[in-house]
Records
---
Amino acid sequence: MENEEKINFLEKVKIFTNENKKIFISATILISLVFASTKYYDYYQESQNEIVSEKFIQAGIYLSLNEKDKSKDIYEEIILNKNKFYSLLALNEIIDNELEKNEEEILRLFKIIEDINVENEQKDLVKLKKALFLIKISKDKEGKKLLNEIISESSVWKDTAAEILK
């Protein structure tokens, strides 16, 4: 009796498999495509990060050779690529080395970086840097507003923002 049940079960599975062969093949192909796409996307992201990091290094070399215009152009290109890591570093280099004199252009670059999808801690860091820049260029009211936003959000940068406001 047990053998008959096993045979019946196996026959039912075989019939079910034959009837739904197209569905199984389609599902297998779909799963394979999703897996391959994910792997390709990871590879693409990694290669993009390598390209941006090489550009960042190249811009640093131009800066050390006192070729500030070339350096600034590369840093701006990095910012426009909206790389989560290197864009903020590029803006820091532009500000720290005074590669851009136009304050409105720097604020435009800040806006580009603010639109990058990053964690809240990093967004607050960008706000903090922007607030410091605004205070530096005598836009105290706007800078203090950003610092107060950081404090009210209970950010990890809260203490730093409060210290600056003192």
---
Amino acid sequence: MIKKFLIGLTALTLTSSNVGAEPSIIDKPIPWSPHKEQLIERYTQEHYGRVQTTIVPQAVVVHWTACSTFETAFNWFYDEADADGELNVASHFIVDRDGTIYRLTDETALNRHAIGYNWCAIGIENVGGVDGVEDLTDEQLDANVELILYLRDKYPTIEYVFGHYQQDAARASGLRIELVPDYYAIKPDPGPEFMRRLHERLQDEPLTFFDE
């Protein structure tokens, strides 16, 4: 009886230690200079009516890169400013085809990746989705599950997970803020099938998803 109890306790301990554990993450930072912070301040003043360069994470937005390699996505995010001299797009994480997770910025840095939600959302990009094809891999799904569990446990303020294409449905969260009229873009990423599978894997977690 004692032996069985100890075996059960060991199994319980191992299971509990794995919940929300930090997955293997490779830090590959993009530049973050005083100039970039000025660009962020200008962006947030225009779009949110206040100046901020960091976030209190309340949501995770899942994307695809619409390109076929990590290097292409990383290079796209690398520059601090875009061609118009405004804050360039970027995301906190990129997940490669084989499930490798790269962290590009601090998790509480403000990045421009989802209109209306940048002030409060962590962005996860997944390499794939070229020409709108839903081709994200099982390895990417596993990595997204691990990463979201880690983020949820690290930041209890996170309540919502949604795909970029669900930006309108996510208005129900009350989180969307956008002061610039007609500043909007229709997005297909990361596809409803990937979000359905992600929701299925995380359905027992205290997270809110939206209809796929």
---
Amino acid sequence: MEIEVTLNQQRGIAGSVDTIEADEALAHRIGLGDTDAWDRFFDRYSSWAYRFAYYHLGRNHADAEDLCSDIILTAAKSIGKFNPKRGDLDAWVHGLARNRLARFCRSRRIELPLIPDFVDQSSDSESTSSGLSDKVQMQDVVNRALACLPERQAAALIAKYVEGYTTDELAQRIQSSPKAAESLLVRARASFRSAFNRLLGSTEGDSYE
């Protein structure tokens, strides 16, 4: 199974105190208009953002370039929203990228990626048939539900069900035991199920900016 190259794979397991403190300092400098800090941010995330976009947009170079630019520019404009108490800069950029991907796909009527097999397990079939008119709306609700979750839970679901990590590999990524990783997945699945079912009634014309 071909999987996305993640930020944590590039930098090793993230989330240490030193990493988060360094990320907070970098974000602060970018917010002050420090061009050297911006260059470091661009070098760190531009290649990853392109691969993220290319992977999720059907290997379309033009769309990938557009989404990559959107992710990087939006991150730069929103850097003041980075909260180191909720995780490192990699996790924040990854969450932002998912949200921009959902917005990009809605604006261009591109199908959004689904978490394979997991949606069917997490949704009520009767509610799904009545509340979702087609696959595109289903994909939109999945992405919105993911965006509602705490970053750690969303990242765990994506790692497990989209990127194909085993529970043991996930445990290594979050610097925890396999048992703790499985507990995180249990909580994440429950949170996702709740958010997903809550969003089933949304209409296709709603604005989710």
